[in-house]
Amino acid sequence: MKRKYISDRLCGLVAIVLMASCLWSCSKTDSGSGSGLIELAGEDFTVVSMARPVDILRSAGAEVENGRVVLPQSLTDGPLHASDMHVLKTLCEAKGLALDNLLSLAYYNPRMSAMVLAVTDSGALASSLGGAGWTGVKCDGGEVYTHDAARSVSLMCDGEYLWIVRRGEADAVAKDVEALKGRAARPLPSWLADKLAAVGDEALRMAYQADTTRVFVAAMGLHGPSMTIDVRCAAKTDGAPRTFFEPDSACTLGNAAAYVSRDDVVSLGVALPRGFQIARLIQEIDYTIYSMPGVADAVRQLDGRLVLSAGIIDPSSLNVMDISNYRVSLALGTGPGHADELLKILRQALGHSSYLPLDMHADGDLVLIDLNGGCRGDKAAAGGEMALLSANLPSDSPLARMAGLPCGFTVKGDADNDAARLEIAFSDSDRGFVATLLDIISIID
C-alpha cells in the first residue's frame, strides 16, 4: 500500500509538470509569449509558474516533428493516470494553440487555479477538440469543453486563451475563469513578472508567496539525465534579496557538518532555526515516544542540529535483515555544556541494549551515536550551511538490483540562509530525466 501511495503521488506530480508544459510550437505570438501570459497573474497568488514545454517533454522522450509533438509509447503506456494522459494527448494533438510557453496559477481558494495557453486560431481549436470527442457548451465569455475520459478537467476557450481548470458545469467554470481574470487587475510586481516570463535556459520558473512581504523563486533545469533546482528568497515589492529566516533566528550546522557522509547511501544534516519547538514536534508525531523515560530530558539538551547518515558495510552480501551489515551515524548538537548531560541520559536509555552494537561519545558540543563503527564524515566541510543532503546508489549495487531500478542515482543538496540548491542525477541512463523518472515510477507501481 505504501509503494502504491508513493507511486500515485509521483505520478500526480509528473502529470502536473507534463500538462504544465504540454507542447512546443514553432509559432510565436505576443499572447503566447511569457510576457503576454504572465499578465494574467494577480499579485495575491499562492503559486505561479512559467514552463518551457520543449525542454520538459523532450526530457520525457517526446520528439518534435513539423512543429508538433510525438509522445513516446513509454509515456502513453506509462504509469500516468488515464485521465491525465487523455488531457495531455488532447493538448499535444490540438491545433490553434501557441504553446511555446504555459502559465500555471494557484490562489488560496482551491477553485482559483488554472493552467493557461494562448490561442492562435479559435476555430481550428474548436474543430480539433470536437474531433477528439470533447463536448462544447457556449457560455458567457467563451465555450467550455468536457470529455468523459478527462474526469477532473474542463477546458474553456475565451477566444484568446485556453484555460485548463477543475471540472465543473459550464456556467460555474465560466464564472471561475472570469474570477481568475479579475485577479490580474492587481498584477504581479514588474520585477517578478519579468523574471518569470524570461524563463531562459531553465525548463520551469516558479514563485511561491511565503507571506505578504517575501516571495520564494525557484528555477528548475533539465540536463540530460539530471535535474537541478535553485531556490532564493526576495522582497515582494522590488525583488531585493532576502533571507529565508531572520538573521537572529537562523542556525548553521557548524562543526556538525563534518559528520555529513557524502560517500554513504544517504546522509542528511539540518540545523533548525532558533526557537523551533523540538519537543512539540515530537509530541505531535508520537506522544508515546516523548513520554518514554528520559526522552523529555534529552530533548531539552538539544540545540536543533542533527546529522544522520547510513551506509552498507559489504554491498556484495546485502541482507535486508542483517543489521551487522549496516553502518549508521547520528550526531546531535547540544547547547553549551550540555553534551555530557545528554550523553549520560542516552547511555542510561540505550546503554543496556544487547542487540545493537552502539558507540556513544561526545565531540565538543556534539553527541555522536554510531552503529557498527558509524559512517565516514566530510571533515573538510565548511559548516556554514543550514542543511546538507547527499545520497548515492550506484547502478551496479545489489541494493539497486534488488529494487529493480534501471539505473543508479546521486543526490546533492545544500542550503544556507540565502539560497537552496538541489541536484538529482541518474547514472548510467541514456534517457532524459523525466523519462527515467517515469521508468522508476513504473517499477514502484
Question: Can you give a write-up of this model?
Answer:
- It is globular and about 75 Å long.
- Helix 1 (2-19) runs parallel beside helix 5 (82-93) and helix 1 (2-19) packs antiparallel against helix 14 (433-444).
- A hairpin with a 6-residue loop joins strand 4 and strand 5 (113-119).
- With 445 residues, the chain is of the alpha+beta class.
- It has helices at residues 2-19, 34-37, 53-59, 73-76, 82-93, 122-131, 170-183, 190-197, 278-285, 287-290, 295-299, 339-350, 398-403, 433-444; strands at 47-51, 63-65, 68-70, 97-106, 113-119, 135-139, 142-146, 153-157, 161-166, 204-209, 214-223, 226-235, 241-242, 266-271, 302-312, 326-334, 358-363, 366-371, 387-393, 408-415, 419-427.
- It has a 19-stranded antiparallel sheet that branches.
> Mean of residue pLDDT?
83
Net shape: globular
The helical percent reads 25-40%
Q: Figure out the total of helices.
A: 14
* SS-based class: alpha+beta
Low-confidence stretches: 1-7, 9-14, 20-31
Q: Give the CA-CA distance, first to last residue.
A: 10 Å
Radius of gyration: 25 Å
**What kind of sheet is the major sheet?**
19 strands, antiparallel
Write down how many β-strands occur, each being a DSSP E stretch of 2 or more residues. 21
Please give the oligomerization state of what you see. Answer: single chain
